[in-house]
Amino acid sequence: MSRTEWNIPALGYGAANVGNLFRALTDAEAWAVLEAAWESGIRYYDTAPHYGLGLSERRLGAFLQTKPRDEFVVSTKVGRLLRANPDFDGGLDTDNDFFVPNDLQRVWDFSDAGIRTSLDESRERLGLDRIDLVYLHDPERHDLDLALAEAFPALEQLRAEGAVSAIGVGAMTSAALARSVREADLDIVMIAGRYTLLEQPAVAQVLPACRERGTGVVAASVFNSGLLAKAEPTRDSRYEYGGVPDDIWDRLQRIVAVCRAHDVLLPAAAMQFPLRDAVTRSVVVGSSRPEQVRQNAALAAAEIPAAFWDELVAEDLIPE
C-alpha cells in the first residue's frame, strides 16, 4: 500500500454533458452549466477524453482555470488515446452519443507509456497543473487481464511518483470492478449504474471487496438512465439501451409507492441512497441544463426520514 489520506466531496458533477453528450451545447451554454454547479457548492468534477473526443476536458478545464486550484477536486480517465481519424468525412460522433465532429478516434492503450501519455494529454487539454484522481476507463470493454498486468501497475507508479493523488477504475460490470479492487491497489472505484436505489448488484461482490481493501466508492449513473430522475416515472422511459423490462418496472412502482407514503421525492432518494453506506465517498451526477444542476444539488441536501429507508429495507427493495 502506498496510499495517502485523501478526501473527495460527497457530490460531484459528471461532465459528459458539456462534451455534447446527447445534444450539442454552445460554449456559453456549457459554461452556464458549470457555473451553476460551482454556485451550488459542487467542488468535485469528473471528465474523460472519451467525453466528446476531448471537448469535455477542454471546456471543464477552461472553467476551472478561473477558480482557486485548492478549492476543487478533478478526475479524468485513461485507457483511450485520442488520435486522428483517417476516415473523417465531416460526420459526427453520434455512434457514441456525442454531437461533435468525429475527426478523432479512440485508440485503446493500457501500456505504461499509453497511460502516461493519456494523462499528459488530459492535463494539457484541461490546462491544469495537476489532476487529483485518475480512473482506468471501462477496462472490461477492452482487456481486463491486460489492465491488471499493465495499466493498474502504471497508475500505481504514477501515484507513487506524486503525479496524481489517487487512482481508481470506472466500470459498468460488477465482476470487473470486484476483480480490479481485489487484484490492484486502488483508492476509488466508480460504479456506473450497478449500485442504485433501483438495483444493487454491486452489493454482492464489489462493496465487500472495497471494505476489505479500504477502497472508496464513487456512485455514478444513479438515476438508471433517467428512470429515477422524475418523481413520477413513465412506462415509456428508457432503461439502459432499450425499454423498461417488466420486472424492473414493477420494482420501481413499489419504490415509488414508498416514496409517496413518506412524501419523499424519488430523485432525492436516488441521489442519497448510495451514501447510506460508509464505503461510498461521492455521488456524481451529470446534467446539460443549469436549472437541473441546481435542482440536483437541492435534492442531494433534502431531508429524508429514517422511516423511509426502514420501509424500503423491510420491503426487500434495498439492502439493510
Query: What is the assembly state of the chains in this entry?
Result: single chain
Task: Tell me the distance between the termini.
Answer: 31 Å
**CATH superfamily descriptor of the domain at 11-223 and 277-286:** NADP-dependent oxidoreductase domain
What is the CATH third-level topology name of the domain at 11-223 and 277-286? Answer: TIM Barrel
- Which runs of at least 5 residues are low in confidence (pLDDT < 50)? none
Beta-strand level of the residues, as a percent range? 15-25%
Average pLDDT confidence is 95
| The level-1 CATH class of the domain at 11-223 and 277-286 | Alpha Beta
Biggest beta sheet summary: 8 strands, parallel, barrel
The assigned CATH architecture of the domain at 11-223 and 277-286 is Alpha-Beta Barrel
Secondary-structure-derived class: alpha/beta
Q: Helix share of residues?
A: 25-40%
Q: Output the helix-strand order.
A: EHEHEEEHEHEHEHEHHEHH
Please report the number of helical segments: 10
The radius of gyration computed from the alpha-carbon positions, rounded to a whole number of angstroms, is 19 Å
Describe this structure in a few short sentences.
With 320 residues, the chain is α/β, with parallel strands linked by helices. It has ten helices and ten strands.
What does the model show?
The chain is α/β, with parallel strands linked by helices and 320 residues long. It has helices at 27-39, 55-64, 112-126, 144-161, 174-183, 202-213, 246-262, 266-272, 290-301, 306-314, and strands at 11-14, 44-46, 73-78, 80-84, 104-108, 133-137, 166-171, 188-192, 216-220, 280-286. It has a domain at 11-223 and 277-286: NADP-dependent oxidoreductase domain (TIM Barrel). The strands form 2 sheets. An 8-stranded parallel beta barrel has the order 1-2-3-6-7-8-9-10, surrounded by 5 helices. It is globular and about 55 Å long. The model has no long low-confidence stretch (mean pLDDT 95).
